[in-house]
Amino acid sequence: MSALLVFCHESNPTPIGADDLLPRTLPVATAECDGLDTRRQGHSLAEFRGEAVSIEEGDVVSSEQWDISSGVGITALMVAAARALESARENRLIDDPYAAALATAAGPAVPTAESDISAGLPDAVDYIGVRSRFFDNWFEKVCADGVRQAVILASGLDTRAFRLPWPDELRLFEIDQPKVLAYKDEVLDQQGARLRCVRQLVAVDLRDDWATALRQAGFDPTRPTAWLAEGLLYYLSATAEQQLLRTIHDLSAAGSRIAIENLHTKRSTLLNPDMSESSQRWGVDLDELLSAEDRTNAADLLTESGWLVHRETAIDAAGRFGRELGGAARGLSQFGDLLTAELPH
Ligand SMILES: C[S@@+](CC[C@H](N)C(=O)[O-])C[C@H]1O[C@@H](n2cnc3c(N)ncnc32)[C@H](O)[C@@H]1O
Q1: Do 7 and 211 form a contact (C-beta atoms < 8 A)?
Q2: Which of 32, 67, 27, 68 lies closest to 48, judged by CA?
């Protein structure tokens, strides 16, 4: 069975024939950073736009591509809108100065008023604020422990490369679909955003051979790595999720860390009719996007592979940050947690 079939969403299991393969080099953009330089080396942003996933001839490529205002790409806009609202609060848990521009530059794709967002996802802004702060703090901790290589899986409109105080020599890889990454960098360029680390974009579908793409981008599997999967696993099929975790494990040197937004319930229980209806009004069908399969908890998969796992509910994390989660955000804690783990030496 081809890798494509293993990685495909159930909703779109169409395999691709040889005619669909586009032999070319990997569209990786590199931005060396000393805090002042946002130049990209090797490839221009334009090369991202419209580019399909690029792997060696003979491999398979996922047929499913999306941009920022279609399919799962819209969810990245939704999260950016929530981060913008959180950043504007007096008691904000994060400060993302680029989130507002990222949420709005695509046009009226998603609502940006808190009342509109809350109508479909009650307390979503509170929850996103807690989740973002949790992972910000985690990155700070693992860097303090000496990790100097990080991979953000499905980075979407994440701007941590531009807003966190990374240590010198930190090399950060961001993986997402080509058009999502291209949109983000175009907006960040317009905003004059300045990198705070060495950053490399890896434009690839996480259901394809992303490990090869990551290595080609300069990832070093012999170095301990900090992996982040935030807002990702519930879009993957159970098989793709397991394969993703297995690949992460295979690429992880001793001392590596991982952080996951780990909603391990059957996805259908996450959705209520209000949420489904509102998301459809925004042009995204969450019923369609969220995989409804039962699956093994990521915590169990990691533990079986030797990782030391720690889990905290969003409610407890919020408490540590001085915030009380209510409504639906509170409900999310019944369905999952914020997971961190370490692969011991
Ligand atoms: C809800 S957004 C979260 C983005 C980011 N992690 C954050 O928290 O802001 C989901 C992201 O997952 C990306 N994504 C989903 N499935 C993917 C796949 N198979 N390969 C690459 N990216 C994927 C989407 O393009 C989108 O940017």
Answers
A1: no
A2: 27
- The C-alpha R_g of the chain, in whole angstroms, comes to 19
Q: Is 178 in the pocket of ligand 1 (CB under 6 A)?
A: no
CA of 74 to the centre of ligand 1 (A): 9
Q: Confidence band (pLDDT; 50, 70, 90) for 197?
A: very high
Distance of alpha carbon 251 from alpha carbon 240, whole angstroms = 16
Q: How far apart are CA 201 and CA 27, in angstroms?
A: 8
pLDDT digits (tens, 9 = 90+) for 53-112: 233 333 334 557 788 888 888 889 989 999 999 999 999 999 999 999 999 999 877 777
Which residue puts its alpha carbon closest to atom 27 of ligand 1?
A: 156
Is pLDDT of 52 > 50?
no
> b vs e for 270-296, b when ≥16 Cβ sit within 10 Å of the residue's Cβ?
beeeebbebbeebebebbebbbbeebe
Q: Cβ contacts of residue 14 below 8 Å, gap of 6+?
A: 8, 63
What is this structure's pTM? 0.83
Tokens of 230: 């935030």
- Decide: 207 in ligand 1 pocket, CB within 6 A: yes
Quickly count: other Cβ atoms within 10 Å of residue 108's Cβ: 10
Sketch out the chain's domains with CATH numbers.
Answer: 3-342 (3.40.50.150)
